[in-house]
Amino acid sequence: EVFKWDGTKFESVQLIPTTGAFDLEHFVIDNTHFLAVANYENGSTFSLDSEVFRWDGTKFASFQLIPAHGARDWEYFVVGGTSYLAAVNYRNDSTRSVNSEVFKWD
């Protein structure tokens, strides 16, 4: 859920669809705001998409689905002026020995 400060309290402005989410990471690229949601599991599988949302001026809209395996965290960082987003995968349906992945802004 996204809240906006009205000067005295936070008010709900948007529900963000998630599936067993563990983390949400906010970041800004070229003055555009994004939210990355780490979806962990849905009750039957750990191998499901996590999702990145982009601010469209009034709300966060779906921007990109990213295949993941028990995602538990996102980390955004910049190296040499290039933006990266790391997905921390924790497990799939059979093992905890899975790779995490780093994505480069293109």
| Beta-strand percent range | over 45%
Rg (CA only): 15 Å
Q: Label the structural class.
A: mainly beta
Q: Enumerate the strands of the largest sheet in spatial order, edge to edge or round the barrel.
A: 3-4-5-6
Distance between the termini: 28 Å
Mean pLDDT: 94
Number of helices: 0
What are the low-pLDDT stretches, counting only 5+ consecutive residues below 50? Answer: none
List how many beta strands DSSP finds.
9
How can the largest sheet be summarized?
4 strands, antiparallel
Order of helices and strands: EEEEEEEEE
User: Helix content range of the residues, please?
Assistant: under 10%
Specify the overall morphology: globular
